[in-house]
Amino acid sequence: MERKTLNLEAIDVKFDAARPGFFSGYASKFGGVDSYGDTILPGAYKKTLKKRSRPIQLRWNHWGPVIGKWLKTEEDEQGLYVEGELTPGHSVAQDVYASLKHGAVTGLSIGFRPVQINDHGDGRRDLKEIDLIEISVVESPADLAAQIGDVKSAIDQAQSLKEIEAFLRDAGGFSRADAVTLVARIKSLARGEREPELKTAEIAGLFQHFQFPQL
């Protein structure tokens, strides 16, 4: 699954004082070229928004808990317009709402799978159709390479299996069972490598498996 993040300045986020927990804005906009060289084209969301068997979930940082619900998700001439409501009384949702209003979080990020792509062959892609998985409120731009670096650093400095598991649970939102499984897999890969460090691609593959909920 891939991710795209828009900062608060770009999503036109708005709040309604009469409706605590409500906010609206754009989870994605058309036409721009992002840091990955991708451009999302108009029409990319039309099929995925129709006849869904499950609702699009509103999550915290992709791998965090469901913190509310999307009241509206529709494609217009600018991009993917959304209206969301954070769950009243939910401790994480309340913190997220306060951070959104304060401008302390980065914005919104979509989790998706590409369906139809025009690959230019030079690192640029036009995304003509995508399968939307979820939309998250995020605290910082999604960067898998940075997350891998954080985990590798923690592994290098950790003195025990428990320290690594604790890092994955606290920083990555992993369950205890997933943290144990991932650490065991990393150790298995490490024993099979000739080089002292794991290959980034292999760790990335593990994160793709564990990090995101399958809807």
Q: How would you describe this structure to a colleague?
A:
The chain is α+β, with helices and mostly antiparallel strands and 215 residues long. The protein has two domains: 2-138, no CATH class; 144-210. It has six helices and nine strands. Strands 1, 2, 3, 4, 5, 6, 7, 8 and 9 form a nine-stranded mixed sheet that branches. α4 (161-172) crosses α5 (176-192) and α5 packs antiparallel against α6. The longest helix is centred in the last third of the chain and has 17 residues, at 176-192. The radius of gyration is 18 Å and the shape is globular. The protein starts with a strand and ends in a 5-residue tail after the last helix. The relative contact order is 0.17.
